[in-house]
Structure formats: structure tokens, C-alpha cells
């Protein structure tokens, strides 16, 4: 199963040369939360139970659930790999198109995977997987729709990796007993290198996940940074405001290149282009890297530029993509 990803700017460098690349191939916030100095012990010592509890408390407060329902993992990707192995394989329905690691990880764990175009097609599955809001097209479903879906399937995984700016979409505050929510810390806070995520679920499932992940599966600096960052509501409010306005600005620039909006979230936009390969190539010649998809000749996804320099580069490059 093909498992292509964004974030592969090394490929761009190899193909086009140059070092000053703007990587818009991911949905990672390019205005990251500012890192504070950390005590030496955070780097020197193994992470403590107190450090983990602090990150869990901050995450629980952020998503609106009890701390006993939250467990940190080494990125949402770690949970995507581990969860399918905690249950007996059966029939899995994955909302498609979507983040391709879900289907690939399920298949690798022995599940029979079928695509589904919307939640209604998932009824009867032993396991259903929904990304909300969806990557790459930004489709979204209110919590009540997903709660109803949970009642029609054996288990439900909801990947909310792009939901931090949209608390109204989260299933975490009223989580059905058979549902699991995944959160990615690195995307909204712009610190993907920490490799940190959170799983929200029933305590018995979290106990199995903890055992499967092993001790000290999340490093101390990640826990300390997450506890501070998730408590910084002023920064989060500013980040949501910036991306709300910036996404509209990007849409306007894309229309000038003859593209139409195919969807998106606060952190990325998806456009219908005349030819995605040509559009990606023309932007790459200005050292701006974007994301194409193997199942569409026309879709191109762009993250949100983070500063004036990046906006200026993109503004100058986009007219070269006009048909």
C-alpha cells in the first residue's frame, strides 16, 4: 500500500537544488510556539511521573475531558501504528480519501480494510476510522454525527490531528465508550520535531496502550514543553486568528492563479488546479514545496505561510502557475 507523505523537502532539494526552501507540503504551523529554556534535568534525567501528569493535565484541560482518559504517545503516528494491534483484526472501514497511514497500519496488522466515502457507509464495521477535520479535503462532521456512528460500529477511531483550532468538532468531551480520539501536538503548536501526541479513550484501553508502548515512550522535553504550550491560551487564540485570516488570503492568491478551493482547514488549503504536477513544479522552481496526491492529477495542498518573507515568495511565484 502506497504511503506517500508531505514533509519530504529533501526530495525537493535533490530534484531542484538550493537550500532556502519554504516547505508548505505539510499542515504544520509555520509560526511555532516559542520554546522557553528548560532545566538541565529535563534533558539529563528520564521523564518523571510528575512530568507526564503535567502534560496529561494540560491536554485534558485543552480538549475538555478527564485526565484519566488521556495518554501521551510519541506522536499521533505512534498511536496509529499501535492501536490496530491491540484488538482482534476484523473488518475496518476508513473514510477515504484521508491520511493514508490509517489504512496502511490496519492492513499491516491483519485487518480487512475497505474505503468509505462518508460515515453512513461505515455501519456494521468492526472498526471505523474518521479524520475530523479530514486530511486532505477538510471535510468535517459534528460530534453528534460521530457519536451516532459509534453506536453503529464495533469501535471508532477519530483522528483529530487538525482539530485544535476547532474545539466545536471534538468528540473528546463526550466520548462514547467504544471510541478513541487521537490528537497531534506538533501540528497546531508547530513543533512536529517533538514527536508528541495524545490518545483519549477508556482507561482500560489506555492501560493496554501504555503496556504496548513501553516505559518512557515520550521524552521529558516533549512533556515539559507540551504542558507549558497547551496552557498558553493567549498564544493559541492568536494562532487561530492568524490562520483564519491567512487561509482566506491564500485562497485569494490561489484564485488569481486560476485555482479553485477544494477544501482545507486552518492549517492547510487544498486546491483544484489544471495540472497538479505542473503547478508543483513551477512553485518548486521558486523553492516552495507543496503536496500532490497519487490519486488526483489536479489536487495540490499548501500549508499556510508563516511570515512576510514566505508570503512575498509565494505571492511572486503563484502567477507563474496561471494557465
Automatic annotation (TrEMBL):
PANTHER family: HISTIDINOL-PHOSPHATE AMINOTRANSFERASE-RELATED, THREONINE-PHOSPHATE DECARBOXYLASE. It catalyses: O-phospho-L-threonine + H(+) = (R)-1-aminopropan-2-yl phosphate + CO2. InterPro entries: Aminotransferase_I/II_large, CobD, NHTrfase_class1_PyrdxlP-BS, PyrdxlP-dep_Trfase, PyrdxlP-dep_Trfase_major, PyrdxlP-dep_Trfase_small. The lineage of its organism: Bacteria, Pseudomonadati, Pseudomonadota, Alphaproteobacteria, Rhodobacterales. NCBIfam families: L_thr_O3P_dcar. Its cofactor is pyridoxal 5'-phosphate. PROSITE patterns: AA_TRANSFER_CLASS_1. Its EC number is 4.1.1.81. This is threonine-phosphate decarboxylase. SUPFAM superfamilies: PLP-dependent transferases. Keywords: Cobalamin biosynthesis, Lyase, Pyridoxal phosphate. Decarboxylates L-threonine-O-3-phosphate to yield (R)-1-amino-2-propanol O-2-phosphate, the precursor for the linkage between the nucleotide loop and the corrin ring in cobalamin. Pathway: Cofactor biosynthesis; adenosylcobalamin biosynthesis. Residues 57-315 form the Aminotransferase class I/classII large domain. It comes from Paracoccus rhizosphaerae. GO terms for molecular function: threonine-phosphate decarboxylase activity.
Amino acid at each position: 500500500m502506497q504511503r506517500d507523505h508531505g514533509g519530504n523537502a529533501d526530495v525537493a532539494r535533490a530534484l531542484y537544488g538550493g537550500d532556502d526552501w519554504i516547505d508548505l507540503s505539510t499542515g504544520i504551523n509555520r509560526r511555532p510556539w516559542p520554546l522557553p529554556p528548560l532545566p538541565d534535568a529535563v534533558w539529563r534525567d528520564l521523564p518523571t511521573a510528575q512530568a507526564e501528569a503535567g502534560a496529561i493535565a494540560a491536554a485534558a484541560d485543552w480538549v475538555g475531558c478527564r485526565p484519566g482518559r488521556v495518554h501521551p504517545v510519541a506522536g499521533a503516528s505512534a498511536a496509529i501504528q499501535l492501536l490496530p494491534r491491540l484488538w482482534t483484526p476484523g473488518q475496518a472501514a476508513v473514510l477515504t480519501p484521508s491520511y493514508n497511514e490509517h489504512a496502511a497500519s490496519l492492513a499491516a496488522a491483519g485487518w480487512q480494510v475497505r474505503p468509505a466515502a462518508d460515515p453512513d457507509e461505515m455501519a456494521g464495521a468492526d472498526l471505523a476510522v474518521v479524520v475530523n477535520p479530514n486530511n486532505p479535503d477538510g471535510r468535517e462532521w459534528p460530534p453528534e454525527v460521530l457519536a451516532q456512528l459509534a453506536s453503529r460500529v464495533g469501535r471508532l477511531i477519530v483522528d483529530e490531528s487538525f482539530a485544535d483550532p476547532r474545539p466545536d468538532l471534538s468528540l473528546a468531551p463526550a466520548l462514547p465508550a467504544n471510541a478513541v480520539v487521537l490528537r497531534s501536538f506538533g501540528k497546531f503548536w508547530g513543533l512536529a520535531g517533538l514527536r508528541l501526541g495524545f490518545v483519549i479513550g477508556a482507561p482500560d484501553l489506555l492501560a493496554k496502550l501504555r503496556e504496548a508502548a513501553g516505559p518512557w515512550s515520550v521524552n521529558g522535553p516533549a512533556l515539559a514543553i507540551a504542558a507549558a504550550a497547551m496552557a498558553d491560551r493567549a498564544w493559541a487564540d492568536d494562532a487561530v486568528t492568524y490562520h483564519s485570516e491567512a487561509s482566506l488570503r491564500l485562497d485569494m492568491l490561489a484564485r488569481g492563479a486560476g485555482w479553485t478551493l477544494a477544501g482545507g482547514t486552518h492549517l492547510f488549503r487544498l486546491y483544484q488546479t489544471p495540472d497538479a504536477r505542473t503547478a508543483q513544479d513551477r512553485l518548486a522552481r521558486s523553492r516552495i514545496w507543496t503536496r500532490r496526491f497519487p490519486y488526483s492529477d489536479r489536487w495540490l495542498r499548501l500549508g499556510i505561510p508563516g511570515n512576510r518573507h514566505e508570503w512575498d515568495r509565494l505571492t511572486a511565484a503563484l502567477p507563474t502557475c496561471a494557465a
